[in-house]
Specification:
The chain is built from four helices and five strands, in the order E-E-E-H-H-H-E-E-H. The protein has about 120 residues and is α/β, with parallel strands linked by helices. The chain has one domain. Helix 1 packs across helix 3 and helix 2 packs across helix 3.
């Protein structure tokens, strides 16, 4: 019996969950599905500038797991770009962080920044 998959900690869902050519009909044949945890690795490593080790700590998984997730995410982005397919972001094994306390680790938590901004703006 295989070991159950570990939940990956994700700080936020993407603002948009579909990207691609404007003139394409969205169907299974012409789309690629990226999971939320794959999106999170792209966000943390490529956008936030985390190392794979920092990303692994943020998501509460092993570095080798992050490496596999990241490789698969990049393959899906390349397939979408090269073949003109719509990239959909949905599903996966993840849990959203709460944005409070020490649950978010080192500064890459978008939810924590959003919560902090809301609190600071309400004080004004």
């Amino acid at each position: 019996m295989p070991r159950p998959r570990k939940w990956r900690k994700v700080c936020c869902l993407p603002d948009s969950n579909r990207f691609g050519p404007l003139n394409t009909v969205v169907n299974q044949e012409h789309s690629v599905t990226m999971t939320i945890d794959e999106y999170e690795t792209i966000r943390l490593i490529d956008f936030e500038g985390f190392t794979q080790e920092e990303c692994a700590a943020q998501m509460n998984v092993a570095r080798t797991t992050v490496q596999g997730i990241y490789t698969e995410a990049r393959r899906k982005i390349a397939e979408s770009l090269v073949n003109g397919k719509v990239l959909r972001i949905e599903g996966g094994d993840y849990k959203l962080c709460d944005g409070f306390g020490n649950s978010c680790g080192s500064g890459g938590c978008r939810r924590r920044r959003c919560v902090r901004d809301i609190i600071e703006n309400n004080k004004l």
